[in-house]
Amino acid sequence: FCSLTKLMGNSCTFTAFPWFGMDIGGTLVKLAYFEPIDITAEEEQEEVESLKSIRKYLTSNVAYGSTGIRDVHLELKDLTIFARRGNLHFIRFPTHDLPTFIQMGRNKNFSTLHTVLCATGGGAYKFEEDFRTIGNLQLHKLDELDCLVKGLLYIDSVSFNGQAECYYFENASDPERCQKMPFNLDDPYPLLVVNIGSGVSILSVHSKDNYKRVTGTSLGGGTFLGLCSLLTGCESFEEALEMASKGDSTHADKLVRDIYGGDYERFGLPGWAVASSFGNMIYKEKRETVSKEDLARAILVTITNNIGSIARMCAVNEKINRVVFVGNFLRVNTLSMKLLAYALDYWSKGQLKALFLEHEGYFGAVGALLGLPNFS
């Protein structure tokens, strides 16, 4: 049925429920689903069974199959989007399971609902034909960086159920005193956005319509998981992080003090700084004593330090002092967040602040959802 204009008594010009936004990345598919809570009696009467079935399935489960997960703790309650009140749900599953998702849509007669399916990310192009042939669904493709910025600014503008969306780490170098603190991002510009997914893209954002991709790196979350899988035999991102949390990267890395016997004072390099990632692994005796946990930690530190270093150089070049890190690499990854927070603060001598957002990996999907009116 039609939603927005029907309530106003106009002819039907807006898109039918269900409302989705999809971000199909290289590793994960992220889904933003809007569940209306202001359905009128007339609308409920007209609602077809397949729509009821989809809504019930998505909102009454926290897991879908063996790999799909709804991040219940991120649900945004009682939002108004396109003049409709509802809850915004966040769902993710591995990209390699996308054909199963498309088949599920077919089984639930998704194509009969005549809904608009807005998608972003590389997979919106790669899997477009699968959506059409398997699910009889037409994708409306949106640019992923446009969606990222639009989704980020929108989520930051609405209250996270009364909590702060944006935060930073105070005393990041001190495990005893380190704590997560809210940060007011009401005036967000200018902002450097570092999006860490399978790879990394860095954007400078000066207004909602004025932003550019500054640079990026192929060494991202996919690199971390790929190398961990090779070197430790881990099977998942969560397992890789668990191993890293128990390891000591200095058993694999060569530090400044390993070369200088202490600090390199002339150029301000402390002895604890990494001089060569995995540099100790050239020695047979070191290879024999290093653990899988140490290797996982060293991979995490290598990838994170590299991203932090590039982000710092971009911030200096763009003359921006607030750097917000987003993307699913940071999901349940407090280790990397604290490392980024400390590194940015230390190497910039306190000039740069690392910021983080609660909905870290879902901004692209939300931006795609917000693109619905363009295709109605």
UniProtKB/TrEMBL annotation:
<keyword id="KW-0418">Kinase</keyword>
<dbReference type="Pfam" id="PF03630">
    <property type="entry name" value="Fumble"/>
</dbReference>
<dbReference type="GO" id="GO:0005634">
    <property type="term" value="C:nucleus"/>
</dbReference>
<dbReference type="GO" id="GO:0015937">
    <property type="term" value="P:coenzyme A biosynthetic process"/>
</dbReference>
<comment type="similarity">
    <text>Belongs to the type II pantothenate kinase family.</text>
</comment>
<dbReference type="GO" id="GO:0005524">
    <property type="term" value="F:ATP binding"/>
</dbReference>
<keyword id="KW-0808">Transferase</keyword>
<dbReference type="GO" id="GO:0004594">
    <property type="term" value="F:pantothenate kinase activity"/>
</dbReference>
<comment type="subunit">
    <text>Homodimer.</text>
</comment>
<comment type="pathway">
    <text>Cofactor biosynthesis; coenzyme A biosynthesis; CoA from (R)-pantothenate: step 1/5.</text>
</comment>
<keyword id="KW-0547">Nucleotide-binding</keyword>
<dbReference type="InterPro" id="IPR043129">
    <property type="entry name" value="ATPase_NBD"/>
</dbReference>
<keyword id="KW-0067">ATP-binding</keyword>
<dbReference type="InterPro" id="IPR004567">
    <property type="entry name" value="Type_II_PanK"/>
</dbReference>
<keyword id="KW-0963">Cytoplasm</keyword>
<protein>
    <recommendedName>
        <fullName>Pantothenate kinase 3</fullName>
        <ecNumber>2.7.1.33</ecNumber>
    </recommendedName>
</protein>
<keyword id="KW-0173">Coenzyme A biosynthesis</keyword>
<dbReference type="GO" id="GO:0005829">
    <property type="term" value="C:cytosol"/>
</dbReference>
<comment type="function">
    <text>Catalyzes the phosphorylation of pantothenate to generate 4'-phosphopantothenate in the first and rate-determining step of coenzyme A (CoA) synthesis.</text>
</comment>
